[in-house]
Amino acid sequence: MYCPECDKLIDTNEKQCPHCNALLLPDKPVSDKVDFVKVFESSDLGLTAIIKSILINADIEYLVRGEHMQSILGGQFSFAFGANIGKVEFFVHKDDNEIASELLTELNN
Fold first, then answer.
1. In Å, how far are 3, 23, 65, 90, 94 from 60, measured between CA atoms?
2. Cβ-based neighbours of 29, under 8 Å, separated by 6 or more
3. CA dihedral 73, 75, 76, 79 (to 10 degrees)
4. Around Cβ 28, how many Cβ atoms within 10 Å?
5. pTM score of the predicted model
6. How far apart are CA 14 and CA 12, in angstroms?
7. What are the angstrom distances between the C-alpha of 78 and each of 12, 86, 91?
8. What's the rounded Cα separation, in Å, for the pair 58 and 99?
9. Which residue has the higher pLDDT, 35 or 71?
10. Where along the chain do its domains lie?
11. Which of 19, 33, 81, 100 could form a disulfide with 92 if both were Cys (CB 3.0 to 4.6 A apart)?
12. What is the DSSP string of 28-83?
C-alpha cells in the first residue's frame, strides 16, 4: 500500500497509514513527468558504492548512468572516446536535490 501523505510504500493490509492516518492507495501513482537532476559525477569507481550508501541511508531514490561502462573500460579514457565515457553520474528527483547535494558536498572536494 502507498501513503500519499508520507510518500512511502507501506507493507500493510490496512486502509489507513499507521503513521499519519491518511487513506492508503493500492500503489504509488505514476506521474506523467518525473524530473531528475544530476547531483554528482566522478570517474572514481570507488566512490560509487559510497554515494549509493549515502543516498540509500537518506532514503533518497536515485538513478545512475555510466556505472557499467566505467567497469568495462577500467577508468576514463577521454583521449579515445567521448569525455563522458568512464564517468558515473548520479541523478535524484528534483525535490531531493538540495538534501542530496548537501550530503555529497564533501565528496566533490
1. 17, 23, 16, 11, 11
2. 2, 4
3. -70
4. 13
5. 0.56
6. 5
7. 50, 8, 22
8. 9
9. 35
10. 1-30, 31-108
11. 100
12. PPPPS---EEEEEEES-HHHHHHHHHHHHHTT--EEEESHHHHHHHTS--TTTS-T
Rounded to an integer, what distance in angstroms lies between the CA atom of residue 88 and that of residue 39?
11
Q: Please provide the size of the chain in residues.
A: 109
Burial status of residue 108 (CB atoms within 10 A of its CB: 0-12, 13-18, 19 or more): exposed
Give the domain 31-108 fold: Alpha-Beta Plaits (3.30.70)
Integer distance in angstroms from the first to the last C-alpha of the chain?
41
